[in-house]
Write a structure and sequence with these properties.
Length: 259
């Protein structure tokens, strides 16, 4: 096997699988802390419940392709997403619980339908892969398209404080790795959504250079606002970043409020 083939078909996807697993694991610390404190805080259970479906869909796709690089991180991701969903559900109020139940019920309908159609409507494995690939792409494109609202805000305010550079760099690296792997194995369901994700991440980096972040009392607010826009699409919540943003806020006192 040539060195190029080893790089693109083994090393690159292995790194992509590692980063994906780390991204799924990021919110576990915050979720465990919330469980110990018996308060949900700023954690939002809904993204975790969506991640359950996302990981199951890509796990199914990876199994059909017999691809360990897609299967492994999503197999672990299912476990972590279920843990985060169940734990935060128990801490949420009834309004949030109702929304989580709606998401899970929708998934309970969608996933079995996909399995039934895949098993009985398509006898060819390639057709089954197409079905699950399209389902996975739909969720991935929603995730990668979520930052568009934040990018529009950056252009409007000419302030990139709402762009979290570490998160953007991780997303870019992850997307580039999976894009390279998808191209190497000629899998459009892998390289297409990740290629779009990489382009959007590069656009965010360009905006951060065009409109430098204006640090000050509003920075924490901008960052938290950006997370509010993107929270439902984050692969694993990444709620630790929200806590950092909240700590950075400088409260404004009313004129009649004592210092």
């Amino acid at each position: 096997m040539e060195a190029k083939s080893i790089l693109l078909e083994t090393i690159v996807p292995a790194l992509g699988a590692l980063i994906s697993t780390v991204m799924y694991a990021v919110p576990i610390k915050a979720v465990t802390r919330a469980s110990q404190n018996r308060t949900l805080g700023d954690l939002n259970p809904i993204p975790f419940s969506v991640t359950v479906a996302n990981t199951i869909i890509w796990l199914s796709y990876g199994l059909l392709r017999l691809d360990p690089f897609i299967t492994t991180p999503n197999c672990l991701g299912v476990v972590m997403a279920i843990y985060c969903t169940v734990t935060t559900y128990g801490l949420a109020d009834e309004k949030v619980r109702s929304r989580v139940r709606m998401v899970l019920c929708a998934e309970a309908v969608l996933l079995p339908v996909l399995w039934v159609v895949s098993a009985f409507a398509f006898s060819d494995v390639k057709d089954q892969q197409n079905l699950w690939g399209l389902a996975g792409n739909t969720i991935s494109l929603i995730y990668y398209g979520a930052p568009l609202s934040s990018m529009a805000e950056v252009i409007r305010t000419r302030n990139s404080a709402s762009i979290l550079l570490p998160l953007t760099m991780v997303n870019l690296t992850n997307a580039l790795l999976w894009t390279a792997y998808g191209l190497a194995v000629m899998d459009a369901y892998v390289w297409l959504p990740n290629g779009i994700g990489a382009a959007l991440s590069l656009a965010q980096l360009a905006l951060s250079m065009m409109f430098p972040a204006r640090h000050g009392s509003a920075v924490g607010s901008h960052v938290s606002s950006a997370l509010d826009h993107n929270h439902d699409a984050l692969p694993s919540g990444l709620d630790d970043l929200r806590h950092v943003a909240d700590e950075e806020r400088v409260p404004l006192k009313r004129p009649d409020e004592k210092h």
